[in-house]
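Protocol step 6 of 9: fold each sequence in the batch and record its structure tokens directly after the sequence line. For illustration, a two-sequence batch is reproduced in full.

Sequence one:
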Amino acid sequence: MIYHEKRVRLPKPKYIVFYNGTKNQPDSMELRLSDCFENTDNDAPCLECTATMLNINYGHNQELMKHCRRLEEYSIFVQCVREYIQSEPSVEDALEKAIDTCINQDVLADFLKKHRAEVTNMILTTYDKDLYEKTLKEDAREEGREEGLMEGRALKYLLKSKRYNDLERATEDIEYQKKLLKEFGIE
């Protein structure tokens, strides 16, 4: 069909991303590939891809969970693992306890009974608590740096325009800092 002149019609793709991370996220949001591009200088990207992110953490997207029991059970299982990781001495112990609890409560029971070793191995080889905690700290540090740079730019604007009273207030009032960031278009 490569020699035909007629355009080949394709079905419209719909990309879905399931989110089960630990950050507080909305039930649903649109993700754009272009948000990851560097140095866009407000130019429209030559390529764009959008995906709908659905938060599948326990307690989110309840309508979806009502229609897909397996996904709801997965959500419960992940929550159970997270809770036991907080209270058990090792990830291995937490995982064993979570699997036992879920089987006893008929949550993914058929799957966990059949694939217990694979689930355990997969989680233990992909979950690195030290790396996870280190990554969280690095992300928080980077977020703090970005906030500090934004605040510094706002303070610089205040100094340049000799708004000393606003400068003094901004050093003590976080809400006022946010207002100034908006005023100067720094977000």
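Sequence two, same batch, same settings:
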Amino acid sequence: MSFQEVSPFLGNQWVGWENYATVLTNSRFHQAVSNTLVLGVGQSFGAVLVGFILALLLEGPSRSLWFVRTAVFLPVVTASAVVGEIWRIIYFPSPDGFMNKVLGLVGIDPIRYLEDTSVALYAVMTVGIWSSAPYYMVIFLAGLAGVDRTLYEAAAIDGARLRHRIVSITIPALRPAIMIVSILAAVRALRIFTDVWVLTGGGPAGSTQVWMTQIYTQGFERNNLGVASAASILLLIASVLLTVVAIYFTRNKEDR
């Protein structure tokens, strides 16, 4: 389909690389790429960092922690559409909206989170971090379970502070988990769709339009199925290349 001009019920016409040229030269796809990169980098870094912090806070043998871990993990098992609707309520732009009411306590004027072109992308990013971080937290918790506790005891005896123990013991021990989580976060960021579609639909004025929403718009709203297919193939290639590069650097570090 990516090499054809798709005309349902009328017959497809072979156009070769024309659909790919359309994708690569279309200004809307350029904007979608830019938004995808900003959203992907910010959301990936934020989710991995928050997941790591949550794992450090909730790691341990205490039986009471199971309830907290379960509560924190709930965003992962909640449908993305439901998460989006909940955050639309939280982001309600009036002064009585939940988030604006909280900010009003410290004297900040109401913000139109999903309607302001300078804020909307970061509002979506926040939702992505909130819903992804608990998933990465679980992977980090599994990695922390394998860290030798005697290393912490020896470091404490030597007078090492908490930040020194994290930098010198925890992070090196979690290097494989960090790489896995980073790959998952990057690939997931490339194909983000539901959060953006439910929260903003790609608006306002295309400020939150990402690669996947642009594919949907071209394919199912404008009926340019050939162009949408070409964009999908390019997304697949980008995902594979990103994964291969990440694995290559991971193996190189392990060999060293």
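Proceed to step 7 once all outputs are recorded. Observation for sequence two: The CA atoms of residues 116 and 204 lie 7 Å apart.
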